[in-house]
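Hi there. Long-time user, first ticket. I'm pasting a complex I've been working with (about 898 residues overall). I'd like to know whether the download I got is complete or cut off, because the file seemed smaller than I expected. Thanks.
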Amino acid sequence: MHGNAGRKGEERAGSATPVVVVGAGFAGLEVAKELGRAGIPVVLVDRQNHHLFQPLLYQVATAALSAAEIAEPIRRILRRYPSVEVLLDEVMAIDPQAREITLATGRRLGYRFLVLASGSRTSYFGHGEWSRLAPGLKTIEDARQLRSRLLLTFEHAERVDDPLERSRLMTIAIIGGGPTGVELAGSIAELSRFTLARDFRSIRPQNTRIMLVEGLPRLLAGFSDKAARFARERLERLGVEVRTGSMVDHIGPGELGIAGERLPVGLVVWAAGVGASPLGAEAGGRTDKSGRVFVEPTLEVTGSPGVFALGDVARCLDADGQPLPGLAQVARQQGLHLGRGLAAMIKDGKALQPFVYRSRGNTAIVGRHAGVFERGRLKMSGWFAWLAWAAIHVYLLVGFQHRLLVSFHWLWRYITYERGARLITFRDDTRQPPPARDAANDRERGAAG
Amino acid sequence: MHGNAGRKGEERAGSATPVVVVGAGFAGLEVAKELGRAGIPVVLVDRQNHHLFQPLLYQVATAALSAAEIAEPIRRILRRYPSVEVLLDEVMAIDPQAREITLATGRRLGYRFLVLASGSRTSYFGHGEWSRLAPGLKTIEDARQLRSRLLLTFEHAERVDDPLERSRLMTIAIIGGGPTGVELAGSIAELSRFTLARDFRSIRPQNTRIMLVEGLPRLLAGFSDKAARFARERLERLGVEVRTGSMVDHIGPGELGIAGERLPVGLVVWAAGVGASPLGAEAGGRTDKSGRVFVEPTLEVTGSPGVFALGDVARCLDADGQPLPGLAQVARQQGLHLGRGLAAMIKDGKALQPFVYRSRGNTAIVGRHAGVFERGRLKMSGWFAWLAWAAIHVYLLVGFQHRLLVSFHWLWRYITYERGARLITFRDDTRQPPPARDAANDRERGAAG
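Hi, the file is complete. Here it is re-exported in full:
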């Protein structure tokens, strides 16, 4: 009762922030910027202190870029907007009736409008137990851990004498044939074929077996058939085994199950799916099976007045009634639209307009000189699409310094085949190879001595 | 018995590697390179996969550089020497009689000559319990953790309403007034005065209280009195409180004790001392009180034939009978000397020569435009010494790419006062401020609501 009275007191006193934005991804940042530009008080809450340029995260995981090159402090981005306050905190609960959120530090914040832009997380489709064995790729820590595990598979293989165990360690499976899976497979193939080729004495990294496993009949579901065929052909040229129409039914320590077959593997990477942040449901909205909350054309959560959802949190339909994909450009456009709309509503009382998505094109890369780019009828693949991919991504990087650095690293890598960020930073769970197999090896060595 | 027989069997079979080098720091790398140049088989063992450019580690800790810019994969550095094998592993035991080492993976390696170049670690002079509260700075992980803790103190202070608690959080103490402590204090002062100045709404980062605590009567013990006075004056101009002649006698959660006085602090950084790696003692050598092993002028461990120690592991005397300091240039010169000497001995039977150290000068920086550089009678401080410091450090960076990147970052920082690597990557122990004080704050807020 005391807590409730306190909350009501706050509301009566009009202490609620006009807009609380949750998440500083592509969507949330745009909302905060537009409202900041209009001088409207905003509190932006994020669990991290940095905005992450997710489309290039796989390059951190494969040692091509450093984490700091694709992450920008949120405070720096929003520094010029004095009405925007940034809070490093996490939303634990939403009370849509009282219009109040509770944060992990115990703090409570009242709001007039709440914008949920908290993105998505790796989803294992009900197999949560796979998360430890097949890491996903959503955060900087994920990328660093994947990079360490990836580089450690080669280190472990170099130390092992048993040829069977060595070939197990040098088998890498990527689950999921969307853009992330395709880009990861291509990048890991180039890492092992070119960058690491001369660095080891006992193993030949260029013989690494790399598998890309996809449940659907073809790669790159969001692209044309032609792009999918191009990606497959280019990956196979890099030595990647592409297995489409293959459902993963088991992941165990050092073991991957595909349609009943059990394969010994050294590393499994999960790029197969994401689920929406649970905040949409927490705000009282109805969600689809991947957790996205249903929204009105204005991006307002259906049935929760004053609450908006955008980016990966929202199930927003396009003109054909299909849900929009979880792309950076969708999130960015929604953020821009809602930010401007809220500013006009708060300042001038104007009604919100429905959101209309305008695709700027879809792009992914397979490796050196091999990209796909599609926009409406325009469908490109190969060298020019690869350049277009690089130009778009450099352009979209938030800070000017990052653009220069990333361009420099790419140019360097292009010329030398080197990768600058080959750091293994140990974590307990990645330090040692699976103990059972290794102990067996030591016994063999001992007996032979 | 079985194990012993196995070992003897290996030795009889002549399977021992001519030279095993432990540690890929400045000393170990030079030994491996010189032997590799001569085509002599070498196994280089290191716990990390990268060589770390330690003199710039404080810049990673203060968000100025990325980890990958000062770390280079050992395999890449030694790639061109086919006789050099790199093992990612850790030495657990040395048997100088059997001339054999045991690694963390259980593997055993015989050697003809063993080179110990495993460096030093943070030492708390018998106060091991301080390590959790006052992190040191020796590894990439240390630097990342310190960076996160440093940036989090500002984030926590921004969230707190109680002015006393806020000023506690915004008090940072650096223990140790050697080059690392001075450089850390200067860099943290510049971070809070310039880089973060406009990023917060509730706190003023430029009001951060920064203390540099040193037990001796003055800073920079390895430098002249003049340099020490210059450093103190420049630090004070940056707003750093310099406390010389002050012994730390207590470190508790949020609390620092200096000569009986208890100060509330938000962050304590330990830059006060290092102790040698314990491998010198493990090899049977006699050690001094900081764990360094006594060596002959040839760098051979006294009383352990065939075992050599260099860099921070060795207690090596100069012409005046004083132990050489733990500097990169000492380690590098020793590595070069021993590598060439061992190559000449193994190939041509030549006797080892005594090592003579030639100082290339001592340098440290206090902040923008403020460095000290001393070599023999030449003693510089100020703008030119600051440039000399930067030029020397860029020159010494191992990879060409790193030189370009670090130069670029420094130039960028010089012009914009920005720092590129302001990443907080959460660890459980750094995520929340000390709970007791924070809970008190929440109660206060609750009562006021």
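A couple of notes from our side: The two ends of chain B are 75 Å apart (CA to CA). Chain B has two domains: 2-122+274-348, 132-271+363-440.
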